């Protein structure tokens, strides 16, 4: 495991990179070192090194490869969430299939980018997840939304998004919505982010107003 200074300037995003390919680590680290608001505090080539780095450096964001020897990325992500580490997790993978993206969402990853994407996209995704946004490919948006029901084309909201929006309008928290609909918390956050973008809402009050003004008619 390679490390940097344990003390970073205030306001800098502290990063741990985890990938078992040295060339990927070296290339990404060299690129990130050029960013004034990002500091790579450690790199790891396997899951145990990553967990050790989390304990020692308390980073803001982990950039995590899925395919690693020993404890792979999925197992690391499960441990991170099970133990309640306050860290954002951005998956960096060579595989962008729907199953991998779906599993990342269900395991409460904060984002998913491809190794084939331009490095600038990875940097942008790091900043976005650091600030609390969920970052996934467009294919994830389509999978989460699902097919819209008949007559529910208002603002392109899907049936599932209307269900989430109704619970938002009723005052339920994200955790309560997740329990009610049997979804993960990350999936609920992803839905709400999409809903706000589609209807032009900036807060839950505006979203609730939109729901009561535009809610679809109940079917008999």
Tell me what the structure shows.
The chain has 220 residues and is α/β, with parallel strands linked by helices. It folds into two domains: 2-139, Rossmann fold, CATH 3.40.50; 146-214, Arc Repressor Mutant, subunit A (Orthogonal Bundle), CATH 1.10.10.10. The chain has ten helices and six strands. The chain has a six-stranded mixed β-sheet, sandwiched between helices. α1 links the parallel β2 and β3 (38-44). α7 crosses α10. The longest helix has 15 residues, at 185-199. The chain is elongated and about 55 Å long. The chain starts with a strand and ends in a 6-residue tail after the last helix. Residues 3-9 and 147-154 have low confidence and may be disordered.
Would you identify the CATH architecture of the largest domain? 3-Layer(aba) Sandwich
Please, how many helices?
A: 10
Would you list the SSEs in sequence order as H and E? EEHEHEHEHEHHHHHH
What does the overall shape look like? elongated
Which segments are poorly predicted (pLDDT under 50) over 5 or more consecutive residues? 3-9, 147-154
Features:
Arc Repressor Mutant, subunit A; 48% helix; 220 residues; 6-stranded mixed beta sheet; single chain; alpha/beta; 6 strands
Could you give a quick summary of the protein structure above?
The protein has helices at residues 22-32, 47-57, 73-82, 98-106, 119-130, 138-145, 159-169, 174-181, 185-199, 204-214, and strands spanning 2-3, 13-18, 38-44, 61-64, 88-93, 111-114. The chain is of the alpha/beta class.
